[in-house]
Structure formats: C-alpha cells, structure tokens
Automatic annotation (TrEMBL):
Short name of one Pfam family: MoCoBD_2
Ranges of Low complexity composition bias in the record: 1-19
Superkingdom of origin: Bacteria
Protein name from the UniProt record: Molybdopterin cofactor-binding domain-containing protein
SMART domains, A to Z: Ald_Xan_dh_C
Domain Aldehyde oxidase/xanthine dehydrogenase a/b hammerhead: 42-149
Transmembrane parts of this sequence: none
Amino acid sequence: MSNDTATAEAEGTAEAATPVPEPIPHGLGESLPPADARAKTEGTFPYAADLWAEGLLWAAVLRSPHPHARIVSIDTTHAREMPGVRAVITHEDVPGTPLHGRGGRADRPVFASDVVRHHGEPLAAVAADHPDTARMAAAAVIVEYEVLDPVTDPEHAFEAEPLHPDGNLIRHIPLRHGDPDAAGEIVVEGLYRIGRQDPAPIGAEAGLAVPRPDGGVELYLASTDPHGDRDIAAACYGLPPEQVKIVVTGVPGATADREDQGFQLPLGLLALKTGCPVKLTATREESFLGHTHRHPTLLRYRHHADAEGRIVKVEAQILLDAGAYADTSSDALAAAVAFACGPYVVPNAFIEGWAVRTNNPPSGHVRGEGAMQVCAAYEAQMDKVAKKLGLDPAEVRLRNVLATGDVLPTGQTVTCPAPVAELLQAVRDFPLPALPKDTPEDEWLLPGGPEGAGEPGAVRRGVGYGIGMVHMLGAEGADEVSTATVKVQDGVATVLCAAVETGQGFTTLARQIVQDTLGVDEVQVAPVDTDQPPAGPGCRGRHTWVSGGAVERAAKMVRTQLLQPLAHQFGMSTELLQIADGKITSYDGVLSTTVGEALDGKELWATAQCRPHPTEPLDEAGQGDAFVGMAFCAIRAVVDVDIEIGSVRVVELAVAQDVGRALNPAQLTARIEAGVTQGVGIALTENLRTPRGLIRHPDLTGYALPTALDAPDIRIVKLVEERDVVAPFGAKAVSAAPVVASPAAVASAVRAATGRPVNRLPIRPQAAVATGH
C-alpha cells in the first residue's frame, strides 16, 4: 500500500470521526432554547435587585402591624432627625391621586391616612444613605393607633360596618340558566374551602427610581404590566404619563401580578422628593405582606343527576375573600361563576357569586384565579355523584363532558376546540404506576419520606381525576391589543414589543416567529420600556396570542417588502415565492437566492397590531359572550396515603392537555410541568395562615412550597393539537389549566384512598385519616 493511499485512508477515518454539529433549531414548532438560559444558569442575568446608580439612596417602607385600626397620629420627627436620612414621606406627600388599584378599581391608598385595612399596609417611606439607616428610620416613625376588631370572615362582611367608602361588597353575579324547577333522581351536596396561596416569587420585589431633568422619574422594575404601572404611578405623582417611564428589568419568574405597588409608588415619590436615585429591595417578609394572594374561597354546591349519572342541574354559592381592596376580584369572580359547573354539559345552572372586602391581606391575580377554586369543588361533586350511583368516576365524567358546539351556563357557545372527552380518555387509559414494594430499601416510597413515621401496612393507594378549564386573554369586554415592530438590517432582525418576558417564553416565541417568516437566523428582542406602544399585562396566555400575533403581522409586512422587488423583477406575485432555510425560491424554480442577497444592505421595518374579537360583560343574569377562548386539561392523580397519620405522597400525575399547536415543544412541556407542580402545592402544603388578619410566618420556612422532593412523576400522555382558528398560530395558553386541574385531581385521589370527603385545600392530615383511625 502506497503512502498516498495510507494518508488518504487516515484522512477519511479522521473525517468520519469528526462529529457533525447538530443544526441549531429555529422557527415555529422547534424547541429553540431561551436566549437568557445561559445567563440565568450562570448567575449573570441582571435582576432588579442588582441595579445601581451614582449617588444612590436606599428606601424602606413602614407597614402596619395591625389588620384594622384607626390612625390617630403619625409623628415622623425622630425619623427625619436621624443622621443620613434624606426624606420621610406619608400620605400628605402624595401630590396626585392618592388612590390606585388594578382591574379598573382605584380604591387603595398609596399610604394609609385615616384607617389601616390590612396587616402590612404602607404608612410611610424613608430614603437614607444606607439601607440599615433607612430601616431604622422607618421603625422610628411613631404611629398612634386605635386598634379595631378586624372583619376576617367573608360571611360576616355582609352585615359588618363598611370597611371602605365603597362598601364591603365588590361584586355580585347571579347566574340564571335553564329551568329552576328541574330536579334529578339523585342529589349530592358539599361545602368546600380553598385556602390562601401566595405566588411566592423566588426573587423578592426590588426596584430603582431615578429622577429626570424634566421633573419626571424613571422606574426600573420587574413589572409585568409596564404601561398599566406607569399610568397608575403618573396619576399618583401628579405627572403626565410622558414624564414617567418604566424600564422593565429582569423578571425572576411570575405566576401572578408579581409587582407590589406598595413599594413601587413610594419609590418614585422618594426619588422626586430627594432628587436622587432611590433603591428598594424588599425582604421576604415584606414580599409576603405586600403583594396580592390567591382568593380564599367558600363554596356550597348541590348537584342533581339522573340515574345514569348525567347532570341535570347545578346550584352553587361562591364567596371570594378579596381582602382589603378590590384589585382584580371582579375578574376572578366572573371566571369562578362562569366555570362553576366545569367542562360539563349542564342544562340548568343557578349560581350566586360574591366578592367581598375583609381585613385580610388583599387578593388578586394568581394563575387560574377563580377557575382553580371552583374546579376543586365541582370535581368533588362529580366524585360524589359517581359514589352515590356506584359508577366509575371517570365514566361519570365522560357522560357529561363538553364538546365544541355545546353551551356554557353563561349562554356562550363553545366555538373553540374542546376535546375534553379525548383528554380524559387519554389519562384514564394510561397504564397505572407499579405498586411500591414493602421492603426496607424502598421506604422512601412511603408517604412522609425517609425516616417517616408511616408504616407500609397503613398505606392505601388512590386514583382520582381532575378536569380544568380556563379562559384566555381578558374577559367581559376587555380591550386586548398589542403592538409590535420588526426591523431587519444587515441580516439581523430586531423585535420591539412591550410584552414582558416573565418566564412564559415570549422572547423565544418572537424569535421563532421572525425566523419562520423571514428566514433570518439572528433575531434580537429589544428590552421593554414604556417608550414603546403598550402590549398589556403578561397573564392568561395573552402574549402568545396578542403579542405573538402582532409580531407575526409585522414580520409578514416586512416579508412583503422583501419579496416585492423580486416578484416584480420576475413578473410574478409575492404569493408564488417562499422563504425556507434562508433561501427565497419561486414555485417554478426560476428564482433562487438567499435572504441576505435579497436584503443587500437594505433596512426594512413594519409595525402592526393584533386585537382579538370583542367580548361582552356578563348581564344581570350572568349571561353573555364574555370570553375570547378557552383551554382544557385532564389529569389523573395516583397517591399513596398513610391512613393512620394522614400523610400523602403524590406518586404520579398523568396529564393530557389541549394546546392548539405546540410552538416550542420543550418550552410547552416545561410550562405544563411547572403548572402541575404548583397545583400540588395548592393541594397539599401551601396555605398562608392569617389568624385574625395577621400573616403568620411570612417567610419560606413557615410557608411550605413544594420542593423537588415533593414533585411527583409527571407524565404528559397526550397533547391535543387541534388549532383554534381565531388564534394566531392556532395555539392556546398552557400554564393555567394544569394549575387548575391538578389540585382537584390530588384531592379526588385522596378521597379514593381514604373514603373521606376531603372538602378543604390544602388537605390537612386529619382529613386524610381513614374512617375508624
């Protein structure tokens, strides 16, 4: 063999051994990794708590130690005289509208002035040259209180003295649908209580306010609704909106309205008063005291069914504890009442819903609000129907499930895909997990974990079901609109849209849309601030739908600009040209060029809006087309319960979900798994206790979040991709539906294991002890 031959063979071997790099995924339908994933995992991602400015002052907020008290006097003299203190402000220092609030209700003061209505309500704020000085000065503000008896039971709010000038009743919705005299052959009743869940963001609230030369102020915040926050701040500061700018810093995840305006608004006031940048990083205790929580709810249900298990009538009373202020309670109540019967065909429904003020901590938007609480109740009722008739719980549900074309109790026809039966059948038919072995080496499988007190002989396995439904976007006439701009220059595309990345993956989606539409690999998403047109809050899947739709429309307009000269040159329409893999080709193969060559140094840009079809408010009978679209999820839970001590281990959750279209499979899977895990916390551990209105243990030691050891095996057994024709890309929101369904499924499984009613969430150990123990 010659040397040349040997060399050639060696080179061939080397080439064969060289790994071929896998192509980087791009475009819709691919699992494109998040652009900020590396920075977040390496700890270099800039959060609000990392901000700094020259001449920085530090802020602290004084909060009420009482849930209800009359303010006799506030003396700031000692605080002002402390060395290093630059400003102390109270309600007297609010130059504009002193009230603010979300959901269109301005009922919450920046600082309490006459009355304290909840534990932790802001009373004063301090700016100083050191954070310890600021905290000591805040503590030095002397407040004389006349302590009042708090109203903490929402049922007592109807007869109690008004806690607010607007009264104690925030909203009442009486839903009337069908024949009030209808009756079934069997009747089951239940009383259910849902506890107070905290969003518990991993990163506590933080922000920086910087005064501007024009007399305005810039706020650097982890805001999820920058334009809404700007408008509230401008009104409170007595400034026009153009003089208040909000720059969104890195948001460390959000499952709710994570920003606490009880420190946002004082932050800007302090910057305006001192003329210096002012920073505030909330402690974990302040975070628990300041932001809103999930509505604690009391629910009374009566289901009528025929002998075959088909629901004839549902009667229910739903009472939401809004806490001290209205916030988004009206929206949460609308969802609770509208979905009170669940994803089932109910010809007759009579629901009474109320949201009332109390002296408990304020409630607000938390993922799946309203829908989650009623799901726990109506699924418990379905279990009772099955038990009374001696039927399989899954079969009873299958006989009643909604489908496209059915009518909700609100009178709205379900026009979107509603594959509820398909979802339920998928989880029902999925193989059950193996039973745990009764051996010492597998004791970690017992409820209670290693070294737990349980005994294998006391463990019972249960299987249960939960089917959840949520609405997407705003409801009842909310004007959902978003604006986006797409620019292309030098082969790089830039997206400008005020949709905040809260962990839902919008920035990744925006990149995928532009890659898919324009064939440009490098896509950048500009930082968000209020100089851009508004995009609305980041909740209920609205940025996937509305902001993603705006990005798509703008990208298509740029695509037309790119293709028109080529189409004109070859005498054809732009519809006969396609872009794929960075190349532009014609239908007949005559034209073939790259996107880069077609751009040839040109700068192209376009701005577009997306606005879904309008909705309407529910009328005086709870009727109306209130929702743009709906999404559904079915979950089967398998639990092991020690029936002697009441400990519960969630073994497995099998999930089937209606997703419309999987735009990023890896991201979608992660969102579903996160939602399911959040639901497990609601079912078993998370309960912010507030005896007599006082938050007990406002920290992550006293508030039990589920950890990695608590997370069960999550099996996503089916994703139904039946596109919603009115939604951009046909996709649906995926995060909220599993949060809604999983607590109900876990409770259903515990019922099956113990024979107990399990009518309260989170499930207390005594509720999981089987009868006779």
